[in-house]
Amino acid sequence: MNDDLTRLEHVLRERAAEVPSFQEMPTKMLARARRRIVRNALASVVAAGLIIAGASVGLAGLGALRGPNGVIPRGPSSSPPGASTPSCVAADLRATASLQGAAGSVVGSIDVANVSTRTCTLEGRPTLTLLSSSGHEVKVRVVPVKPQWKADAASVPRGWPVVRLRPGSAAAIRVGWTNPCPQLSGPAQWNVDLGSGRGALDVQGAAISPPPCNGPTMPSTLEVGPYEPSAGR
């Protein structure tokens, strides 16, 4: 590169010598102007060479960082806690009821147990459907209620509102049913829809006598709480 600069300086000096002189410019000033032109041109060339050399080194280093397919590897991405635990689907679960009659109503809970070999999660409030013995849907007004732990003024369960179900553990749904009118002639079948295309579950053990129809002009009411850890397990 030194030889190239020497040749370039020689050429620039020749070009500078060709700069026409004006009568009003003294000879010494003209010589200094010619030298300044040569120095500025050389400095520009050297700076450009350094920039090109630096860019070459940077590209070489970038190439070394690339993987075998030319993709720059990234560090591990951060994921929110629990993101690797899948949501439960109907095939993972079994639903059973723990219900009893109380003052003209049926109250209790529905336990949703994980019967699979993997851990999964439940969150939010499920959709409950009641069917008569003839298979017709019982019209009810759904009323959201607090989870049982909040009604009991207990501490917030760990991780709630997400309920993490290991194999064998269960989530509970607080329920209460009043005033089925017209009066049902037999027990109703309860159904839990998990939502988001995850399937539905028939509830086992819910075949108890329905509450009485106490007000034919009043709606039948079904209270439904969100998923919460089951007190039983």
Molecular structure report:
This protein folds into 2 domains: 64 residues, no CATH class; 140 residues, Immunoglobulin-like (Sandwich). The protein is α+β, with helices and mostly antiparallel strands and 233 residues long. A hairpin with a 6-residue loop joins strand 8 and strand 9. The longest helix is centred in the first third of the chain and has 39 residues. The chain contains 3 helices and 10 strands; from the N terminus they run H-H-E-E-E-E-E-H-E-E-E-E-E.
Strands of the widest sheet, in order across it, are 4-8-9-1-2-7-10-5
Largest sheet data? 8 strands, mixed
Shape: elongated
- What's the CATH architecture name of the largest domain? Sandwich
Overall structural class, as computed from helix and strand content, comes to alpha+beta
Structural domain count: 2
pLDDT under 50 segments (min length 5)? Answer: 57-82
Sketch the topology as an H/E string, one letter per element.
Answer: HHEEEEEHEEEEE
Taking the alpha carbons of the first and last residues, their distance comes to 80 Å
If helices are DSSP runs of H or I spanning 4 or more residues, what is the number of helices?
3
What's the rounded overall pLDDT mean?
78
Strand elements, count:
10
User: What is the beta-strand fraction?
Assistant: 25-35%
